[in-house]
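To: structure subgroup
Subject: Chain for Friday's discussion

All,

I'm putting the inputs and outputs inline so they're searchable in the archive.
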Amino acid sequence: MAEAQIVLSHSRESEIVAVATGEQYPWAHTALAQSGFQRDDDGVWHLPAHAPETTVVDLVTCAKRHRTSVHTSSRRFIGDAARDLARLLPGQWHASVEIYSHPAWQEDLVPWIWDSGELGRALQTERVPYAATLTDTVQGTTLLFIERPGRQLGYLVGAFAPKGLEEGYGDSHAPHSIVLPPFPGRAAQAVTDRYLPAYEQAVYARRTTAIAAALADIRSEHDTWQAVIASGRYSDAAPLNAAALGSITEEFLDHAWRRFLTVVDHAPRLIDRCRPADSPWPEDAAALSRLADALSDAETALDEEVHGSPVPAQERRARAWPAIETWLAEGEIFLRQARVSTPHRRPALAGSAPVRPLTAARPAHRSH
């Protein structure tokens, strides 16, 4: 395959669009520019209205001079397909095109993809020069939409790791991407009925697991700290003086606060879904209320630490510990409630909804 390629496809709005790809993609950019194509903010090249009919023929000739091959896609422009799908999904979705001209840019996607199915494997083994993202501007969910490699029809859709769980690549909780047909209505139905509910269940399980792990770590550290304080000695039996005891306590409290931030990040979304009255343990309501209050106190402390005046370390420790202590004492009650609660289902597929742009948290595509 040539070191630079141009892929032409048909677009509903621009008629002919082009994408430059390959390790030497700048050669393709030069050929497109010299042939009269214009590039938009997404990195897609468009043939201007009223361009001469010979422009595409001229492009092939010009591309040869710049050691670039030209290919025509049998599919419609992926931006059109993504926007048609976004309009039919429930809620407010925004679609945008991403170009991965250099193969290394595609590799940058891999750590961000939260998938245990075909999409994740395709990104590692197949060339994917372009894709589209679909972002729920209310929920924050971001999906990746690509043409299914090796097939003439069909697409793959999967998700990026949700905010706060960016380490989720290869995670056993990751949902499976699904294959979508080339028909917008049927594709939207599959995403709504199959993929999004599975995704939400996966996010819920992943958040629950993260909270459980954080509490287990803090509890283990707490037990170790208590044992050291009770014995007055290091693990090698050497005696501790007062300064050392204070230092160990400060280190424990600082570590506990850092780990507790995982609970602060994820628990509010889950605790709101807990319905103790509908569970086998209706008496858990009082404990959940105390846990929610502790979370609120921790969020206030964190907000002041980040956005307010610098807080002395001793004061921060004193304010953070009551919230942590509450969760150590009653966190298991939350976990059992969370595990018997299920995420709210999204509404049934409805008519199209207006879309508005959203600035993505993940780095956007690179085009040069």
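Points worth raising on Friday:
The first strand starts at residue 5 and ends at 11.
Residues 347-361 have pLDDT under 50 and may be disordered.

D.
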